[in-house]
Amino acid sequence: MMPIWVLMFLAVAAAAPLDDDKIIGGYECTPHSQPWQVYLTQNGDRWCGGSLILPRWIISAAHCYVPPETMVAHLGEHDLNKKETTEQHIQVESIYMHHGYNEDTYDNDIMLVKLVEPAQYNQYVQPIPVARSCPKAATECLVSGYGNLLAYGVKYADQLQCLDLPILSESSCKASYPKKISENMFCAGFLEGGKDSCQGDSGGPLICNGELYGVVSWGWYCARKDLPGVYAKVCNYLDWIQDITNNN
């Protein structure tokens, strides 16, 4: 489900709509191979993705913000249609959007979600290390989520989906989205189209070399030629992440 303000924005900007990001052209992940993956619901409804980084802390996208009392974090999931006995469902206590987030440009599209109680680590629930370096072009990465499977139409995934994809050069990214890419964003995917993250995967992880490098953020349409997915650049927020998690 897409936040209401995003739907309003899309209606106004129909000529070139921003679309918060889904997995298209990927494959079903090996069950529980992404134990940091978080599935966030709002009032019981499908909402966004996230990444567990500490027992009580999740990184997601700022445009996924809703009142914390309405949000629950689901960890240890794979098939949303099955009770797998591996799940942990934990109420959200508070949410910290980045102070520089701009809902019009998606700049600083990152937030930290604090849980009411700590997640219990086991083989199904594990944190992902936050990358200390910034992404480099041509690095092979993996994005995962429960978002829409279709470039045209709607069919949400019930099993966690994965997609292997490369980080694109800054020049290619800016050529795809002229004057839209800030220093806090990067692109990953395929300029030929056909494979992408998109609606429903927002806030989820882009993992490279076993570390969290990106947060699924935005794009124009999904899986279209010359319009790759855009991700929040986690390396730019290391001090902010440390400050929030240490002092709250």
UniProtKB/TrEMBL annotation:
The record's section on PANTHER family has: TRYPSIN-3-LIKE, TRYPSIN-RELATED
Q: Respond yes or no to whether keyword Protease is given for this record.
A: yes
Q: Which GO terms describe its cellular component?
A: extracellular space
Q: Does the keyword Signal apply?
A: yes
Q: Where is the Peptidase S1 domain?
A: 23-246
Q: Name one GO biological process term.
A: proteolysis
Q: What InterPro entries does UniProt report for this protein, alphabetically?
A: Peptidase_S1_PA, Peptidase_S1_PA_chymotrypsin, Peptidase_S1A, Serine_Proteases_S1, Trypsin_dom, TRYPSIN_HIS, TRYPSIN_SER
For this UniProt record, the keywords arranged alphabetically read as follows:
Disulfide bond, Hydrolase, Protease, Serine protease, Signal
Q: Name one GO molecular function term.
A: serine-type endopeptidase activity
Q: Span of the secretion signal?
A: 1-15
List the protein's name.
MGC85264 protein
Q: By which gene is this protein encoded?
A: prss3.S
Q: Which family does it belong to?
A: Belongs to the peptidase S1 family. Snake venom subfamily.
Q: CDD domains recorded for this chain?
A: Tryp_SPc (cd00190)
- Output the lineage of the source organism: Eukaryota, Metazoa, Chordata, Craniata, Vertebrata
Recorded source organism is Xenopus laevis (African clawed frog)
Q: Which Pfam families match?
A: Trypsin
